[in-house]
Each structure stands twice: as structure tokens, then as C-alpha cells.
Design a protein that fits this description.
Elements (H helix, E strand, L loop, with lengths): L4 H7 L2 H7 L1 E5 L3 H13 L3 E6 L23 H9 L7 E6 L9 H5 L3 E4 L4 H14 L3 E7 L2 E7 L19 E2 H5 L5 H17 L9 E2 L7 H17 L8 H19 L15 H11 L14 H25 L16 H17 L7 H8 L7 H23 L11 E5 L8 E5 L13 E7 L6 H12 L6 E5 L4 E4 L21 E6 L9 E7 L9 E3 L23 E2 L7 E2 L14 H12 L8 E2 L5 E2 L4
Parallel strand pairs: 1-2, 1-4, 2-3, 4-5, 7-8, 11-15
Antiparallel strand pairs: 5-6, 6-9, 9-10, 11-16, 12-13, 12-14, 14-15, 17-18, 19-20
Helix pairs in contact: 3-15, 8-13, 11-12, 12-13, 13-14
The chain binds adenosine-5'-triphosphate and zinc ion (ZN).
The site of zinc ion has 10 residues, from loops.
């Protein structure tokens, strides 16, 4: 019996398309491993996998294509090696690379029938979304956060895209004074260690920290100013980095002097426990007497004060050496070398854990184990293997729907069967809730734009040919417009900036495949943004070196300018690890949202294993038939 007999019975003629299709999977982490297994077993003919990362010990509990011996090897390559043998009829191409690399351009995306996102960050998701919209390739977007998961089908021009709805980040921020002057919980000390101390000593300034709110009010103005001076003084210490006394200087500054300054503000401690400054020499003595020098490796125990001191000093030294090295390596550019906190970077985590705990000691707050601090500092929401597996399964089912629609002649496609599906076991009545897909939003900067191709004679065309001849004369744009190069988001022209007009496009880094975004800035009924995609052609010298390749209409932007916020149900996209739409703010009830009664009843039928209805039914031989045309 051929291995795919049941698959063929289930999918019908769709299976032929699946076998012939080329698909792209971006991200080979938690969802990616599950998804690749599904894609391979379903028999998608050619599967490309892109992932920039290497395998880490912490991935092994759920990323089942990876084993201990694979640690430090590229995820994309190992995923291919592990999943390839599941099905000899499938070819896997692995790319150990960032999906944002220029080699993965729009024409590369156009080579795929469908793209699957299995990513963990907004930036990459938004990038792939834009590429798919431009390449007009359907995208199955997915994400999970703890027990919640979500799958969204994005069909360019037909459904809303990833950027149609704003994404809320879940980043919690803390008032600067709580973090810097009056911490009362371990998390305050952890944020202080990560976003203030680490940032000032090794990184960029705390002012850039996303979790600290530096807003100045009339109540805190004086204290905020003092804190600024304090930070400045700490920064000055950086000049002594590498010297023998450096660890002591930093310690004395933040655990003794600054605490004494806080103590001098008596009003602050009227209703609070007073902080107690630490003494470097005393702790040094304590540490010499009874601390195991390998204590940093024991990340599940709560370290004593002296143990934290030892880890603080040793991590400060390790990081100083790294920063010094980074400084000497920099031979070009003028940006200062900096280190950034990474929960998986042992040195940075040791430093943050020990500093946070020492500060907790000062303020009488319970210390935490390094393991716990890693979760809190890294905003880690535990990744649940089953949620990933369920979400990856839903991705493939949605891909079937999208592919079926692709087979229909253009006018008949309505994508009505594709759904936005949420796994939300704790925030809705049912574990799986679905919603109908909405159409593209006309004000979306990515999919609500008109895209046209233009032919350009790059040997002579100037920006003026585009702005004056094409846009203003031919397309009747008013003066208030701007032109940006999408590749690098660089402004090329607007009403107040015409320096580039006489320059050749070539000299402005505009080449074949570049896209120019035209924004109508006029107040009166502005047009939607237009993206001009450059193709090259030699054009006779007497003709304009720029021609439109197709006729098109440019719609007007909707009257009100709805902000890109969550007017509807799209939920909250988490930011870390397994970011996704948290289904917590599913606002519509299951019924309203389109959890169709028929699906529920079909499920009933499937479970009975009895009645045949249109859609999913079980055959006598046990095959599940998923409806076909
Ligand atoms: N720009 C990008 N290009 C290619 N791959 C990316 C890009 N951004 C993220 N990824 C990959 O997407 C995957 C997301 O997987 P997942 O959410 O399971 O994260 P993880 O890094 O494996 O685990 P964790 O964050 O929980 O430690 C990762 O393997 C990551 O390397
Ligand atoms: Zn959109």
C-alpha cells in the first residue's frame, strides 16, 4: 500500500498540488519543528527552511527535531537532516540565514506557492508579511504564548495582512523612581540591574530602556534630576574599566554611595523600610571564607549575599574583558562598542542576577535564584510543546483551504473557508475559536497601497523624471507628496527637500527590484500610498526614460484616519519567545466570531464516526475525508 494512500483519500486532488508545491517556512524553533514535520509528512514537494539561529540546550524540551549532540549547530540544517528521512518524496532546502538578508528578495518569495511564518518577533514577521504582500504569495502566520496560540491566513489583496491591525506589546514599564529609589519587589531590582546598571556600565544609556518610564512630573522632578546626575557619575566610571579597582569602584558607587544618598532623603523612608548600604571589604572577607568559586554554575539555588558578591565581581570582570576586546576590535565606524543583555548570555545573566540580588539585600527584598531571574529578566513565558503542535496543525489545515482557493479561477476565489483560528483554553468557552478573515484595510501601509511596475532607463532617468513628469504631470499629483526608497526607508523627496531631483536614480541606490513609496501628503482627499516597483528597459533617447507598465487607479484614503490600533479582535501580540496573539482579548463571542455551528456539529459527526455530510467525514476504512471541490 503506498504510504500516502490515506492522505490521498483525505485530500483528494489537492494532494497533487501539495506534491508539486514549493513552500517556505521561516523559523525552525518551537512551532517550526512541529510544522516542518507536518509539511514533510503531508508531502509538500519542496520545502525551504530559513532560520538564523543555532541550537541551544534550552530548545531541546520542545524542539523535537534537535538532540543534545546538535547543540550549537544551525537549526535550519539540523531540522532538514532530522525531518528529511520522514518522507523520501520531499526535498528540503535549508538556509542558515536571516530572512531579512537581501538575497531573499521579492522575486525569491515569488518562487513559492505558500509561505509559513514560525517566528518569534514582530520585526521578522512584519518583514515576511511585506515581502509576501509584494510577491502576492499567501502567508500562514502563527504564534503561541503559553497555552494560547493563533493562526492567521493572509492572502494578499483578499484578506487583511499582518500589519492591518496594530500589535500591542506586552512590555510592562515601571516608574523610574520605583526602580532607582524605592524598589519593593524582586522584579524592580531585576529591572534596575538589567536596564540601569548593566546599560550604564556596558551598554547604551538607561534612557533607551523600554521597561523604564522616565516621565518627569512635578512630584518627582527633583528626584529624577538627581538620578540623572547619579547615572552620569556611574558612566564616568566606565573610563576605569579594565583597572584592578574597577569592580570595587562600581560596587561602592551603587551599593554604598548611592544608597547613602537615598538614606539622606529622610522623607522617603517615613513609611518604608530604610535601605542598608553594603560594605565591600566585609563582603570580600565573608566571600573568602566560605564561597565556592563555581557558585555561578548553580543557577537553581538562591545564592547568599557573599555568593552574589563573588558572582558580581567575576561577571563584572568577564564583561569588562569582553567590552575591552570589542573596543580594540573596532577599527571602523564611530559608534562606541557596547554589550547588550541577553538572557542566554551567561556573563550578562550572571551580572544581572548577582546585581539584582545584592540590591534586593539592600532593600530587604527576598533574593531569587538565577534561573528565576532569567525568566523574569528575559520576559519568558513558558513555551508549551502541545500548544506549538496544535498551532502547527492548524497552520497546515488553513494552508489546505488557501490552496484550494488558489486553484479556482481568479474571480471565484473568496477565501471564505480560511479562518483566523485561536487556541484559547483559558479565556474562552471553547479551546479553539475561529473568526472569519477580514478584507484588507484600505489605510494599511502595507496592503492598502496600490502597487505598479514602472520601466525605467536607469542609464539616464533622474528623480525629476519620476516626481515631475510621472507623478505630477502624468498622474496629476499636487506638490505635497513624498518619495521614499522602501529598501532602506530613506526619504528621497518631499515638498521641503528637493536636493535629489537632478540626481540619476542609479546614484540614489535605486536599482532593478527597488520599490519607491509615494505618499500623497495633501490634506484634501489624499490618495492611498503607491508603490512603484522598478524594472529596467532601454528607452529611446527622445522619449521619457520612465514609463508605466500598467493602467491603474489610485483610490483615496478613507476619511477618518483610524489609528493602527486594535479596533477589532486581533488580540495582543506578545513580544518574546513565542510571541503571538494572546487570545485574552477575544472580544466577540464564539458565535459572533464565526465559530460556526456546522464545524462544531461536523466535529460531532467525526467523533461519532457515522454520518456523511459535506465536509469532514470518516469513511468505512477509517480515512478522514476533508472536503474537496
Ligand atoms: N529574522 C529571522 N530570520 C530567520 N529566523 C528567525 C528570524 N527571527 C527569528 N528567527 C527564528 O525563529 C525561531 C522562533 O522559534 P521560537 O519562538 O521557538 O524561539 P527559540 O529562540 O527557539 O526559543 P526561545 O526564544 O524560547 O529560547 C527561532 O529559531 C529563531 O531563530
Ligand atoms: Zn494590511
Amino acid at each position: 500500500m503506498p504510504r500516502d494512500r490515506f492522505l490521498h483519500k483525505s485530500l483528494g486532488t489537492l494532494q497533487n498540488d501539495i506534491q508539486k508545491s514549493r513552500v517556505l517556512m521561516v523559523g525552525a524553533g518551537g512551532i517550526g519543528c512541529e510544522l516542518l514535520k507536518n509539511l514533510v509528512l503531508t508531502g509538500f514537494g519542496e520545502i525551504h527552511v530559513v532560520d538564523l539561529d543555532t541550537i541551544d540546550l534550552s530548545n531541546l524540551n520542545r524542539q523535537f527535531l534537535f538532540r543534545h549532540e546538535h547543540i550549537k549547530r544551525p537549526k535550519a540544517l539540523v531540522a532538514k537532516e532530522s525531518a528529511g528521512p520522514f518522507n523520501p518524496n520531499v526535498t528540503i532546502e535549508a538556509h542558515h540565514a536571516n530572512i531579512k538578508d537581501p538575497e531573499f528578495d521579492v522575486s525569491w518569495f515569488q518562487g513559492f506557492n505558500i509561505v509559513f511564518n514560525a517566528l518569534d518577533n514582530f520585526e521578522a514577521r512584519r518583514h515576511v508579511n511585506r515581502m509576501c504582500v509584494e510577491a502576492e504569495v499567501p502567508l500562514i502566520e502563527s504564534g503561541t504564548t503559553g497555552y494560547n496560540g493563533q493562526t492567521q491566513v493572509i492572502v494578499p489583496g483578499k484578506t487583511e495582512c499582518y500589519d492591518c491591525t496594530g500589535k500591542e506589546t506586552n512590555n510592562k514599564t515601571f516608574p523610574v523612581c520605583t526602580i532607582r529609589s524605592t524598589p519593593s519587589q524582586a522584579i524592580h531590582c531585576i529591572v534596575w540591574a538589567k536596564s540601569y546598571l548593566f546599560a550604564e556600565v556596558f551598554g547604551t544609556s538607561e534612557d533607551d530602556a523600554p521597561d523604564m518610564d522616565n516621565t518627569e512630573t512635578s512630584d518627582n522632578a527633583q528626584e529624577v534630576e538627581k538620578l540623572r546626575q547619579e547615572a552620569q557619575a556611574l558612566k564616568v566610571l566606565r573610563d576605569s574599566m579594565g583597572s584592578k579597582d574597577f569592580p570595587r569602584m562600581v560596587f561602592d558607587k551603587v551599593f554604598t554611595e548611592d544608597i547613602n544618598r537615598l538614606l539622606s532623603m529622610e522623607d522617603m523612608w517615613k513609611n518604608r523600610r530604610k535601605p542598608e548600604p553594603l560594605d565591600f571589604d566585609k563582603l570580600k572577607e565573608e566571600a573568602a571564607a566560605n564561597v565556592d568559586p563555581d557558585i555561578a554554575a548553580k543557577d537553581q539555588v538562591v545564592w547568599t549575599r557573599a555568593q552574589n558578591f563573588v558572582v558580581f565581581i567575576s561577571s563584572l570582570q568577564r564583561l569588562s574583558v569582553r567590552l575591552e576586546e570589542a573596543r580594540t576590535r573596532r577599527d571602523v565606524g564611530n559608534a562606541a562598542a557596547v554589550l547588550s543583555f541577553d538572557k542566554d548570555d551567561r556573563d550578562t545573566l550572571d551580572f544581572v542576577a548577582a546585581s539584582a540580588n545584592l540590591r534586593s539585600t539592600v532593600f530587604g527584598i527576598d533574593s531569587k535564584s538565577e534561573f528565576d531571574i532569567k525568566q523574569m529578566a528575559g520576559n519568558i513565558i513558558p513555551a508549551i510543546a502541545t500548544t506549538n503542535a496544535m498551532t502547527a496543525g492548524l497552520c497546515v489545515l488553513q494552508a489546505f483551504h488557501a490552496m484550494r482557493e488558489q486553484r479556482k479561477i481568479k474571480e471565484e476565489r473568496n477565501y471564505g473557508k480560511t479562518k483566523m483560528v485561536f487556541l484559547a483554553p483559558y479565556s474562552s468557552d471553547r479551546a479553539i475559536v475561529s473568526e472569519h478573515i477580514r478584507p484588507p484595510r484600505p489605510d494599511c501601509a502595507i496592503c492598502g497601497v496600490t502597487r505598479v511596475r514602472i520601466e525605467v532607463d536607469l542609464s539616464r532617468a533622474t528623480l525629476k523624471d519620476i516626481v515631475d513628469s510621472l507623478l505630477k504631470t502624468h498622474l496629476a499629483y499636487a506638490d505635497d507628496l513624498s518619495v521614499r526608497l522602501q529598501d532602506n526607508d530613506g526619504l528621497l523627496y518631499d515638498a521641503d527637500f528637493d536636493d535629489n531631483l537632478e540626481k540619476k536614480l542609479r546614484d540614489l541606490d535605486i536599482k532593478v527590484g527597488s520599490s519607491l513609496e509615494i505618499v500623497d501628503e495633501s490634506d484634501e482627499a489624499p490618495r492611498v500610498n503607491v508603490v512603484l516597483r522598478i524594472t529596467a528597459k532601454e528607452i529611446a533617447a527622445e522619449e521619457l526614460p520612465v514609463t508605466l507598465l500598467e493602467k491603474f487607479e489610485i483610490a483615496r484614503k478613507p476619511k477618518s484616519e483610524p489609528a493602527m490600533t486594535n479596533g477589532t479582535t486581533n488580540g495582543t501580540h506578545g513580544t518574546n519567545g513565542h510571541s503571538a496573539v494572546l487570545a485574552t482579548n477575544l472580544k466577540r463571542s464564539a458565535d459572533e466570531a464565526g465559530l460556526e455551528a456546522d464545524i462544531a456539529s461536523k466535529r460531532g459527526k467525526v467523533m461519532d464516526g457515522a454520518a456523511k455530510a459535506e465536509g469532514e467525514v470518516i469513511d468505512d476504512d477509517g480515512t478522514i475525508n476533508i472536503e474537496d471541490d
